[in-house]
Backbone:
């Protein structure tokens, strides 16, 4: 009797404990359901994009540049574009079927080019438009450790057609059942028993959602029971609309490398390169069809199977009268039109990604970047980035051919910016551009060689009462006793001495001794003031050797300091990121363009005269007069002691480009600035072939014909004459008798004449 | 008869030259003394809002840039300075020579209390090759900001 009582008590105890455990489990499950569906646990990585390309009437652009961009965006060439993502170029005309991006609706546009400019843009119905936007290229993401990627939609963004197709194909009774469908389960049970397998699931959309959110993909009956409980809880707490939306945002679509593609929006972008809202019925049918077996029906790996599956879905739609027979026949004739994968979970551009991360870290926590679904719009120009990478790879091959295997492990760093705005358009931190590792753009602090010289000459030209471009500088032997008793005796690259040379020539010939003497006469303090105005944070240490290049900077610091020189004296801090948006556009953080005039226009005009001479007759010579004029170039080579570093910085059109080459272990190279980095620069700029950026000459500048040697007034027809800019009031006054006959009235420039003349000079 | 025709031709030529000289002569606003300005010009210098309204009347030469400026002006009138700035930067990326863009940026920065930037945008605008004397006058107002 007592024993019976104990058994009974144990039985009820067990039942009670089971109920308590069950209730606790349900409570836990309920909390997890709520947490997950309320979006707390949904991690959405930040997406990083290039800049969007905008084409406007009157915009200067080369058709081949647009074509390259379209190729990168996986647009396909088609004679008569009729679907999003197709284009055709012919004789000054681009027909493009845009995929649509933000305010830009998808559609066919005709872009007409004339003389390097867009002359007009027309819609397919012939109506003119001013501007079209091509969507930005997705260039990477900032992922959480599980590598799940998705783009969340809200209900209003979900196409009605998708809902219809989903319900018709996946769960016809979705709007009637309460989470589980007994008839479907029964049907699946019978089928599985007959086939002695677990092939058919009979899951409703709610069950699929529960499975995807909480359970492993294994097919067991225990999991099915848990799934059923979770489904009932989901149905209990959420509306049908909320459940469907969660499913659309969460369902697994495909695996791409380490990255798992979840949700229909990302699926649309991954396979079709456009937003879900722009997809046609056949494309939606493919995505829905893929749910049955994301790997088996992957249209990239198994296009035939994927097409069969899509056509099957289309047949279901036809049989349910969702589409007409005519539409069905049209859709099954359509190819899959899948784009090439353009996204990598690991960025293809590691150096640029580092720059993006630096910009972001000052405003966002790492966790937020990995989970909050931010959209990061950068300033990267994908075509410019590609050209830069190709130029580095190709030039390295050429250099190895010329100098031998010794250069096998030569390293490089390169940056391209828009000189006016400081927007970073491309960056490469290795001679193997896609290699991860040491980022030389940011971290390789190296002696700048002759790249320091323009800052010293600018300091002199700022003292315009004492210095002009014809001021003679002494390039004869110099020996200085250092505090430790050593003698410092700088040498020129040609190991020669040149006596008195005009200031402008000492710069474009890059004479070390003349520069060292100039630096010493100006003093460290004066030169430091110039470096300060260029916002160089690093300070000179007071050694005379710094005047000829022992001063160390990283490539990014150098290009920042040259940016005001390239942009007519206006400093603008370099920026990789343009804008960061919240996942639903709920906030926008912009990285605005700010400028500050840090250099006076007149001395800068004189400096740019000399930097242009670098290309005409100096260390970067070799281009035709026409090219020099049309590109409006200027630049400087730099070679450090024993040729350990080869530098070139140069502006052309609106681009400022810096290249560094050298070994990581700092050993000697056979390269000078001219034979090494300049070759990369040239390869790059010839691909870009920039358009000229013209501005006016500063008010207080005048041009004079003077004698190349004595600097006195001369005339165009006189021997040895050169046309040189002067700040008003600093021009030479004397005309030696022997030149009075060859100097005419035409040699004197009025303001109007000067402006016309500068159409050609274009400084 | 020939003499009369010659006299007529000479008189006509002198008249034409004098007319063409007059039309070429341009009055530069910078030449006018302060006390000779009309009250509306004085308002420009003293009233921020009046100056802004004048700036917004400056149109871009390119229709596509003007379209972007219309959108930026709309944001501006609603007080959305962030979007105004984004649109102006967008315009600047398409063309770096439009005075209408630099003037708006100079005034926007002025409104944001960024005086150095305001002056810098006006200095940059003044460097454009084609700039009317009225635009030059407006740019110079920002140069005088304290």
Residues:
């Amino acid at each position: 009797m007592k024993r019976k009582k104990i058994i009974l008590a144990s039985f009820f105890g067990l039942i009670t404990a089971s109920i308590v455990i069950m209730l606790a489990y349900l409570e836990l499950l309920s909390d997890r359901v709520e947490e997950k569906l309320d979006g707390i646990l949904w991690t959405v990585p930040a997406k990083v994009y290039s800049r969007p390309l905008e084409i406007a009437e009157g915009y200067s652009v080369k058709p081949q540049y647009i074509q390259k961009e379209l190729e990168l965006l996986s647009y396909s060439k088609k004679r008569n574009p009729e679907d999003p993502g197709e284009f055709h170029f012919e004789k000054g005309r681009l027909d493009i079927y845009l995929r649509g991006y933000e305010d830009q609706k998808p559609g066919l546009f005709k872009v007409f080019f004339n003389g390097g400019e867009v002359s007009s843009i027309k819609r397919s119905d012939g109506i003119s438009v001013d501007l079209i936007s091509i969507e930005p290229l997705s260039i990477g993401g900032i992922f959480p450790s599980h590598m799940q990627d998705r783009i969340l939609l809200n209900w209003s963004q979900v196409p009605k057609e998708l809902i219809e197709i989903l319900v018709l194909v996946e769960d016809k009774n979705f709007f009637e059942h309460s989470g589980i469908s007994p008839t479907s389960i029964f049907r699946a049970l019978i089928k599985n028993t007959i086939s002695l397998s677990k092939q058919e699931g009979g899951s409703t959309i709610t069950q699929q959602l529960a499975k995807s959110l909480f359970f492993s993909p294994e097919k067991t009956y225990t999991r099915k029971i848990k799934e059923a409980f979770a489904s009932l809880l989901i149905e209990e707490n959420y509306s049908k609309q909320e459940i469907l939306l969660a499913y659309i945002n969460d369902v697994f679509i495909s695996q791409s490398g380490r990255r798992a593609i979840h949700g229909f929006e990302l699926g649309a972008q991954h396979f079709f390169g456009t937003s879900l809202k722009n997809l046609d019925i056949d494309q939606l049918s493919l995505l829905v069809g893929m749910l049955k077996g994301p790997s088996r029906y992957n249209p990239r790996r198994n296009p035939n199977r994927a097409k069969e599956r899509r056509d099957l879905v289309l047949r279901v739609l036809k049989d349910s009268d969702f589409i007409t027979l005519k539409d069905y026949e049209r859709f099954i004739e359509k190819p899959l039109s899948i784009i090439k994968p353009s996204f990598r979970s690991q960025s293809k551009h590691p150096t640029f990604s580092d720059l993006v991360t630096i910009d972001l870290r000052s405003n966002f926590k790492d966790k937020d970047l990995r989970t909050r679904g931010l959209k990061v719009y950068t300033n990267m120009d994908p075509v410019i980035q590609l050209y830069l990478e190709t130029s580095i790879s190709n030039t390295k091959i050429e250099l190895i051919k010329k100098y031998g295997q010794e250069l096998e492990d030569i390293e490089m760093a390169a940056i391209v910016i828009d000189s006016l705005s400081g927007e970073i358009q491309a960056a490469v931190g290795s001679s193997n551009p896609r290699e991860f590792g040491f980022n030389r753009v940011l971290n390789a602090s190296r002696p700048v060689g002759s790249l320091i010289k323009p800052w010293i000459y600018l300091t002199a030209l700022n003292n315009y009462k004492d210095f002009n471009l014809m001021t003679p500088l002494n390039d004869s032997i110099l020996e200085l006793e250092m505090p430790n008793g050593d003698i410092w005796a700088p040498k020129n690259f040609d190991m020669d001495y040149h006596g008195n040379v005009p200031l402008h020539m000492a710069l474009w010939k890059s004479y070390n001794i003349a520069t060292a003497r100039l630096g010493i006469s100006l003093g460290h303090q004066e030169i430091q003031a110039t470096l300060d105005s260029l916002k160089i944070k690093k300070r000179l240490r007071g050694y005379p050797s710094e005047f000829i290049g022992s001063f160390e900077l990283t490539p990014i610091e150098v290009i920042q300091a040259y940016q005001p020189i390239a942009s007519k004296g206006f400093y603008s801090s370099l920026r990789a990121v343009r804008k960061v948006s919240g996942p639903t556009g709920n906030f926008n953080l912009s990285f605005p363009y700010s400028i500050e005039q840090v250099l006076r226009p007149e001395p800068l005009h004189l400096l740019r005269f000399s930097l242009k001479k670098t290309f005409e007759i100096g260390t970067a010579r070799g281009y035709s007069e026409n090219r020099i004029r049309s590109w409006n170039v200027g630049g400087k080579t730099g070679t450090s002691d024993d040729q350990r570093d080869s530098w070139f910085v140069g502006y052309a059109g609106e681009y400022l480009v810096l290249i560094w080459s050298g070994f990581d272990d700092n050993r000697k190279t056979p390269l000078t600035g001219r034979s090494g980095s300049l070759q990369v620069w040239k390869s790059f700029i010839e691909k870009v072939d920039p358009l000229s950026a013209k501005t006016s000459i500063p008010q207080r500048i005048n041009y004079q014909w003077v004698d190349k040697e004595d600097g006195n007034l001369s005339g165009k027809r006189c021997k040895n004459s050169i046309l040189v800019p002067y700040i008003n009031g600093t021009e030479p006054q004397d005309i030696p008798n022997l030149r009075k006959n060859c100097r005419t009235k035409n040699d004197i420039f009025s303001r109007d004449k000067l402006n016309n003349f500068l159409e050609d000079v274009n400084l | 008869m020939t003499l009369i025709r010659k006299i007529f031709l000479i008189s006509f030529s002198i008249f034409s030259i004098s007319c063409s000289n007059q039309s070429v002569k341009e009055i530069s606003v910078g030449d006018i003394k302060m006390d000779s300005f009309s009250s509306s010009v004085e308002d420009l210098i003293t009233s921020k809002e009046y100056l802004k309204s004048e700036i917004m009347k400056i149109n871009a030469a390119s229709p596509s840039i003007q379209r972007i400026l219309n959108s930026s002006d709309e944001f501006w009138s609603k007080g959305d300075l962030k979007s105004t700035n984004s649109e102006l930067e967008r315009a600047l990326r398409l063309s770096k020579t439009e005075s209408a863009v630099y003037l708006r940026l100079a005034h926007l920065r002025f409104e944001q209390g960024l005086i150095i930037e305001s002056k810098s945008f006006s200095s940059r605008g003044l460097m454009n090759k084609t700039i009317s004397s009225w635009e030059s006058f407006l740019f110079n107002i920002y140069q005088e900001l304290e």
